[in-house]
Amino acid sequence: MRVFLAGATGAIGRLLLPLLLTAGHQVVAGSRSEEGARALRAQGAEALRLDVFDRAVVERAVAAAAPDAVVHQLTALSGLDLTENARIRREGTRNLVDAAHRAGVRRIVAQSISWAYQGGDTPATEATPLDPTTEQPRAATVGGVRALEEAVAELPEHVVLRYGTLYGPGTWYAEDGLMAERLHRGELAASEAVNSFLHVEDAARAALAALEWPSGTVNVVDDDPAPARLWVPVLAAAVGAPTPPAAAGRAAWERGADGTLARTARGWRPTRASWRQGFTELGRG
Q1: Each residue of 38-84: pLDDT tens digit?
Q2: CA–CA separation, 92 vs 261, rounded Å?
Q3: Range of the domain at 123
């Protein structure tokens, strides 16, 4: 299959690219910089400069690539810019989908998140509606997710991967990541807020597999949704930070996500079934 990979130098994209190539796919990968494009070519991909906010550039790139599928892994999270990230979901996705339409591309796989659901007391399934909140900054995040998912669904074959909270190299939950910094500063609460996690390598594996999945939205999470009072101490120990005291309360949307569909209907399972295993690996390298 010929694949157009947008976001090839991000936390997931840089792991996904070699998986795609090893699986025998031809990959055309986009990068914001010429330096990034050179690095992608060195790995065996066809590479080009890509500004996802420039509609004309995106249209020309996708048309020239003539892919069988588009894989959308674009984010702005490395710079901690949630506003820019929401813009990518709205405008960048719109440009990619429109370019795919014009180029006759039928299939797209796109990155979404599993914590945009409305509130509840149990892990959310794919049938749970997205949160209707108007409170900022969450409303901007959920609005961006909704725009991304609605745009992607316009293509005849579309898979939306609602990833759990990513951890591992290049993410916020790494030995040198944002959450380690917050733990060292005593800013991360061990509360009742429930997370569903996913190792970044498993996220890349799911994106590869999703090229063959039927259309739809799928929670891609590990098997162990848990409150922060359980996972924060394990993360703190892994990154050498003090364990914060337990704290009460959680927001209604902090409920985790149910990964049953991926396991039963898609035959996909994470290599790290729980953050309990995965977090202990963070301090080893």
Answers
A1: 999 999 999 998 999 999 999 999 999 999 999 999 988 766 678 88
A2: 28
A3: 2-170+199-222+257-270
